[in-house]
Design brief:
The protein is an all-beta fold and 119 residues long. It is built from no helices and 11 strands. The protein starts with a strand and ends with a strand.
Length: 119
């Protein structure tokens, strides 16, 4: 059973930073991609960033390039999302997810962590 637990959300002023963590357990993730998604009130969930667990190859949405960085610590089985230069429009619930490489969808999701950026 895959278990993903996010932490690190909170309230921050515009221009500030937060680091989200996603603790993963339940299996070996060497054949998985780990992703971060977000969903703002009244909006659809959108892709933010992803990383291949084994190679560390990263992907990110255009709107976070230069501001957000995804990374993973294999020893701690944890994925991070470092968020800098936060904007009010980054306010959302942020979710961690796991997808088997070659799979069609992210099959495993965490419960989410709230990020609120004040202007």
């Amino acid at each position: 059973q895959v278990h993903l637990v996010e932490s690190g959300g909170g309230l921050v002023q515009a221009g500030g930073s937060l680091r989200l963590s996603c603790a993963a357990s339940g299996r070996t993730f060497s054949s998985y991609n780990m992703g971060w998604f977000r969903q703002a009130p009244g909006e659809e969930r959108e892709f933010v960033s992803a990383i291949s667990w084994s190679a560390g190859t990263t992907y990110c949405a255009d709107f976070v390039k230069g501001r957000f960085t995804i990374s993973r610590d294999k020893a701690k089985n944890t994925v991070y999302l470092q968020m800098n230069s936060l904007k009010p429009e980054d306010t959302a619930v942020y979710y961690c997810a796991a997808r088997r490489i070659g799979g069609n969808e992210y099959a495993y999701w965490g419960q989410g962590t709230q990020v609120t950026v004040s202007s």
